[in-house]
Design brief:
- The protein is α/β, with parallel strands linked by helices.
- It is built from 7 helices and 4 strands, in the order H-E-H-E-H-H-H-E-H-H-E.
- A 4-stranded parallel beta sheet has the order 2-1-3-4.
- Helix 1 packs across helix 2.
């Protein structure tokens, strides 16, 4: 696949995510959770969301190295409690009825060696601000909302052929 062909397919993938996966509506806010390693896809998603009529697109960048260091060194107090700005941000996102897109592109071994209890401690408070609006976590499937691109070296990321 040539680079031009790849870029065309990536643009079509972004359009599919926006128009079919989350079905962005005119005036709707969009929140995009994506790794800094996926900048090209993020830019396409932002562009396609605005073209679909999004009122705003909030990009929440993540960085595996920074996240790993936080999980490794943060105090238990901090791991167990979401800061107030996270609570306020969650309230804002829910009030806006934002479409949320998560592009997962972590290396499956990125957090190897980090105590799983610390990871679990950190995940719990991040979801709590949403509980009053969406309820506690439950097992669901949501086609088009959770997208995965493996980042392990040597793996093919995805194919649209």
């Amino acid at each position: 696949m040539t680079m031009t062909n790849f870029e065309e397919k990536l643009a079509k993938y972004a359009q599919l995510i926006i128009e079919v996966g989350v079905n962005v509506q005119k005036g709707q806010a969009v929140v995009l959770y994506i790794s800094v390693t996926q900048q090209k896809l993020a830019h396409l998603l932002v562009e396609k969301a605005y073209q679909a009529g999004a009122s705003e697109v909030i990009v929440k960048w993540s960085d595996t190295f920074s996240n790993r260091q936080f999980l490794k060194y943060a105090s238990a107090e901090r791991l167990n409690n979401a800061p107030e700005y996270i609570v306020k941000e969650a309230e804002y996102i829910v009030a806006k009825k934002a479409a949320r897109i998560s592009v997962v592109s972590e290396d499956p071994g990125a957090y190897a060696g980090i105590d799983q209890k610390r990871i679990a401690q950190n995940q719990r408070p991040w979801g709590k601000p949403y509980y009053p609006y969406v309820g506690p976590p439950k097992i669901t499937t949501s086609v088009g909302r959770w997208l995965a691109r493996p980042m392990k070296p040597g793996l093919k990321r995805f194919s649209l052929t």
